[in-house]
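Q: Could you fold this chain for me?
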Amino acid sequence: MSAMISINNVSKWYGDFQVLTDCTTGVKKGEVVVVCGPSGSGKSTLIKCVNALEPFQKGEIIVDGIAVGDPKTDLPKLRSRVGMVFQHFELFPHLSITENLAIAQVKVLGRSQDEAREKGLKLLDRVGLKAHAHKFPGQLSGGQQQRVAIARALAMDPIAMLFDEPTSALDPEMINEVLDVMTELAQEGMTMMCVTHEMGFARRVAHRVIFMDKGAIVEDCDKDAFFGDINARSERARQFLSKILQH
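A: Sure. Below is the predicted structure, expressed as structure tokens.
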């Protein structure tokens, strides 16, 4: 089965400092891949390269047949098809929740205000926030704002979703309300690439786990192998797992 997201020998530098080294992996349609690893291992950089929020200097990334690094590629159009949810919710504080959900649909996809609003309300309902449609982001909790951010990404009818540590800025009691929405999405067959430290979520939902260290992909295996046969993992992954799985 061909990959929806294909990453081939991708390397990236900031000046002289190499942040990604020959990263190769792929995500098939309907697959959920969790990217984990210590801080500074390049996880967020890799996922941002997928929709060209970060440029890369070597290798290629193909998303649904489109070369991300090709200068001729229409990046705004590509980004509208690949939903991205960030650590910080990136909502417009001066717009209501409904307006936050409608604005890109109108500007990028050319939908009418009514159509965009209706789609937004449907998705707010789906993430359990329809009652808050008229509020502003500042009136919602962090977990609610992150669920709005997920609904906003879904409003663009993406072919895949990227999550960059979507729960790391949240209080512990809000984490599950976001992970529950992500779990539902995964169960519905959404193609997902998630950078996260939530290993319980990875165990429950991921098909594959990618472990990164120092800008390189050290492990790329199915979930059961990653969590099941710890002795078969690299030493770096074993250290990481022993720290994380104790909690």
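A (continued): The beta strands are 3-14, 17-28, 32-36, 58-63, 66-67, 82-85, 160-164, 192-195, 208-213, 216-222.
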